[in-house]
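One chain shown below:
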Amino acid sequence: MKYFSLVAIIFALITSSFIWMPNEEKTEGIQFESLTFEEALKKAKKEDKLIFLDAYAVWCGPCKMLDRTTFKNKEVGDVFNENFINLKIDMEKGEGPAIARKYQVRAYPTMFLINANGKVEKRILGFVKDEQLLSEVENFID
């Protein structure tokens, strides 16, 4: 019985320490906003920025690799968070299928720079490393 009590106490201490650990996931990289596409268009117009749209699918391996690498890069995050309205939409759920049809998404990942009127300014297909992504958008940075 003492052994069971000791194990229960240790388990409680270990699990409670995880609850109080700060979430450092948001400290670096691109901060994607929780907005609908229409809300993003309005915000883009108000702030005079382009929308960076990551059109992805949950089953897409290269999409997951972008999330783990390129989108977590500090330099990429600094540039994108300052210059764009960052939006990430699953093209197979919610408003995603309509957006996929409108912008003719044929492969994943597809990334877009879209102006406040909904016009595509730039389309980027497939996995890209941080330097390449920054190079792709450099002409659109203030």
User: Anything to note?
Assistant: Confidence is low (pLDDT under 50) at residues 15-25. Helices lie at 2-19, 37-47, 61-68, 74-83, 96-102, 130-137. The longest strand covers residues 50-56.
